[in-house]
Amino acid sequence: MRIQVLGMGCPNCFALAQHTRAALSTLGIEAEVEKVEDPRAIMAMGVMTTPALVVDGKVRVSGRVPSSKELAELLAP
């Protein structure tokens, strides 16, 4: 599983990364969480509002920080 957190370094971007790691830990899933801060790379993925969460190349969340429960549901196999 490839997970990318898109954002330029705002508090919400960091919160999304932390919540994502916590959800992965709760689910017992090993995955690398990559932080993408390059605006060109973010726009190339079709994201106009950050923070955003990309799982295996698909944008799953954009413009908000989902709850831990929602993240667990998004990341569950």
From the structure above, extract its key features.
77 residues, alpha+beta, Glutaredoxin, 4-stranded mixed β-sheet, 4 strands, 25% strand
Task: List strands and helices in order, with pairings.
Blueprint: E1 2-6, H1 11-27, E2 32-36, H2 39-44, E3 52-55, E4 58-62, H3 68-75
Parallel strand pairs: 1-2
Antiparallel strand pairs: 1-3, 3-4
Helix pairs in contact: 1-3
Describe the protein.
With 77 residues, the protein is an alpha+beta fold. It has one domain: Glutaredoxin (3-Layer(aba) Sandwich). The protein has helices at 11-27, 39-44, 68-75; strands spanning 2-6, 32-36, 52-55, 58-62. Strands 2-1-3-4 form a 4-stranded mixed β-sheet. Helix 1 (11-27) crosses helix 3. The radius of gyration is 11 Å and the shape is globular. The model has no long low-confidence stretch (mean pLDDT 94).
Secondary-structure class: alpha+beta
CATH superfamily, by name, is Glutaredoxin
Helical residue percent band: 40-55%
Q: Name the overall outline.
A: globular
Radius of gyration: 11 Å
Largest sheet: 4 strands, mixed
CATH architecture heading: 3-Layer(aba) Sandwich
Distance between the termini: 10 Å
Rounded average pLDDT: 94
CATH topology: Glutaredoxin
Low-confidence stretches: none
User: Strands across the major sheet, in which order?
Assistant: 2-1-3-4
Please report the total strand number as a whole number: 4
Structurally, the number of domains stands at 1
Number of H- or I-type helical stretches: 3
Helix/strand order: EHEHEEH
The share of residues in extended strands comes to 15-25%
CATH class reads: Alpha Beta
